[in-house]
């Protein structure tokens, strides 16, 4: 849930931590909206006696009272009376009859948010009476719990900075399972979903009247290692999140202590069966580990092949054969380095600059053992699709080696690598890669392509789906320019 922060930063009356507190509230107030079956709107004073809506959340347990979003708009005059009263008194205000132009016939509450003795903002809660009927016990407990949390907001006790803010998958929500307990941790009410979740763990069919802590700890008593947060969560003492596993069933738990300025007098516990979710996560972890191991083994095998080629080249008497094996060894080593890089991350995109930072200089050093060749790398490749990493690395390898062996041809010099992103005429993102040297330049007349340049042309046209051009550089050297689309899928045809 987004929170408009411009008004907050323009207001100098906020105390230390107030803005972070409001962000924490907006990040967690879906809980209250679901419990109250109501829309919540956060109002902030503008400094000229009015208020502006900074955020709005709709309930997932009921239909919304507002079908249009008015975040960023100023408060209506008729609603402002109640908000003014809540702001002035610091007390929760209630009104049953609300103007039809805002939300039809609805129950409205204005809740002042007070922190460290200072008023920060006001929340209005809008419950649509059109959908009202004789409330069930579950609805009554839900609404009472929402009122308790909003009352804590008037005391600055909710939200709590110790509340979980992580986005771990499987975080429990109100509809997943809801338990309300007294100060001693005895269950006063448990929703049907909560009862079902604990039954899967092997608990009794009835939770009400039992100590949730005793029941839970009895289930995991045979475990050698238990999450140290579990006892405090199931007792409702700390606003934390934890997870328990028993008999192959995983339950995610979250506690919200209910308290006033003097004591903790109760708590809410949300629970969710995340067994299937965790099973899928384990499968993904296993697959990721398998793919990493495959990349690692391919890298090792390629390095072994490169070592064999090196050994074989040392035994060759033919200079041409020896050179051919050394070139093959270099190409295999390039592919191995890419697999080594891919084994460290399994994303669909690769930070290609990190790969080139360590590979480009290495390529030139191998190709120029008796020369002093300076390398210059400019521009940024950025994040590239992983399927481009191997062919592009091979192309740069061949071009850099060719620049040293033929462009400089035994003399000292410089090899430069430039990467530029741009928007093509087709509306897609393209990458321009330029490899240049300050050597002898292109030979006059027609010249034949060796194996290396044939490999480059094949990779550029078939694998990278790009174009390649050889030009005379401004410094009398050679310049090779490759232009390739970054989205292979959109250019597949």
From TrEMBL:
PROSITE patterns linked: HIS_KIN
UniProt xrefs under InterPro entries: H_kinase_PdtaS_GAF_sf (IPR038424), HATPase_C_sf (IPR036890), HATPase_dom (IPR003594), His_kinase_dom (IPR005467), PAS-like_dom_sf (IPR035965), PAS_4 (IPR013656), PdtaS_GAF (IPR022066), Sig_transdc_His_kin_sub2_dim/P (IPR011495)
Catalysed reactions listed for this entry: ATP + protein L-histidine = ADP + protein N-phospho-L-histidine
Keywords, in A-Z order: ATP-binding, Kinase, Nucleotide-binding, Phosphoprotein, Transferase
SMART domains noted in UniProt: HATPase_c
SUPFAM superfamilies: ATPase domain of HSP90 chaperone/DNA topoisomerase II/histidine kinase (SSF55874), PYP-like sensor domain (PAS domain) (SSF55785)
EC code(s) of this entry: 2.7.13.3
Domain Histidine kinase span(s) in chain numbering: 293-488
Keyword ATP-binding: yes
EC class name: transferase
GO MF: ATP binding; protein histidine kinase activity
Pfam families per UniProt: GAF_PdtaS (PF12282), HATPase_c (PF02518), HisKA_2 (PF07568), PAS_4 (PF08448)
Keyword check for ATP-binding: yes
Protein known as: histidine kinase
Species: Glutamicibacter creatinolyticus
């Amino acid at each position: 849930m987004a929170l408009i922060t411009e008004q907050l930063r323009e207001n100098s009356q906020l105390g230390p931590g107030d803005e972070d507190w409001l962000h924490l509230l907006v990040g967690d107030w879906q809980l209250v909206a679901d419990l109250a079956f109501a829309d919540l709107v956060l109002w902030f004073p503008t400094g000229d006696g009015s208020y502006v809506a900074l955020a709005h959340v709709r309930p997932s347990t009921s239909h919304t009272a507002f079908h249009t979003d008015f975040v960023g708009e100023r408060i209506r005059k008729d609603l402002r009376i109640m908000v003014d009263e809540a702001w002035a008194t610091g007390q929760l205000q209630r009104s049953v009859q609300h103007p039809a132009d805002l939300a039809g016939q609805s129950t409205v509450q204005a809740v002042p948010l007070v922190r460290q003795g200072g008023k920060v903002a006001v929340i209005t809660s809008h419950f649509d009476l059109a959908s009202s009927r004789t409330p069930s016990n579950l609805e009554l407990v839900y609404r009472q719990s929402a009122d308790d949390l909003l009352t804590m907001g008037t005391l600055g006790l909710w939200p709590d900075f110790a509340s979980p803010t992580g986005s771990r998958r499987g975080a429990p929500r109100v509809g997943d399972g809801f338990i309300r307990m007294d100060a001693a941790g005895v269950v006063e009410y448990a929703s049907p979903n909560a009862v079902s979740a604990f039954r899967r763990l092997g608990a009794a069919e009835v939770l009400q009247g039992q100590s949730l802590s005793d029941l839970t700890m009895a289930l995991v008593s045979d475990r050698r290692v238990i999450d140290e947060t579990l006892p405090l969560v199931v007792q409702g003492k700390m606003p934390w999140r934890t997870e328990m596993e028993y008999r192959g069933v995983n339950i995610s738990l979250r506690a919200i202590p209910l308290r006033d300025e003097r004591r903790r007098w109760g708590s809410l516990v949300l629970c969710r069966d995340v067994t299937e979710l965790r099973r899928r996560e384990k499968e993904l972890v296993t697959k990721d580990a398998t793919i990493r191991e495959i990349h690692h083994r391919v890298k090792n095998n390629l390095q072994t092949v490169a070592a064999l080629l090196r050994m074989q080249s040392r035994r060759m008497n033919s200079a041409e054969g020896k050179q051919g094996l050394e070139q093959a060894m270099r190409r295999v080593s390039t592919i191995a380095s890419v697999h080594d890089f891919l084994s460290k991350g399994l994303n669909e995109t690769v930070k290609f600059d990190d790969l080139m930072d360590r590979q480009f200089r290495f390529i030139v050093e191998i190709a120029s053992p008796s020369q002093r060749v300076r390398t210059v790398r400019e521009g940024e490749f950025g994040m590239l699709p992983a399927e481009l990493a191997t062919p592009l690395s091979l192309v740069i390898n061949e071009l850099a080696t060719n620049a040293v062996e033929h462009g400089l041809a035994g003399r000292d010099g410089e090899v430069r690598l430039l990467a530029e992103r741009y928007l093509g005429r087709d509306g897609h993102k393209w990458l321009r890669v330029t490899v240049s040297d300050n050597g002898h330049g292109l030979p006059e007349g027609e010249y034949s392509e060796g194996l290396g340049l044939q490999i480059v042309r094949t990779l550029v046209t078939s694998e990278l789906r790009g174009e390649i051009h050889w030009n005379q550089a401004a410094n009398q050297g050679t310049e090779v320019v490759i232009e390739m689309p970054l989205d292979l899928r959109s250019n597949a045809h």
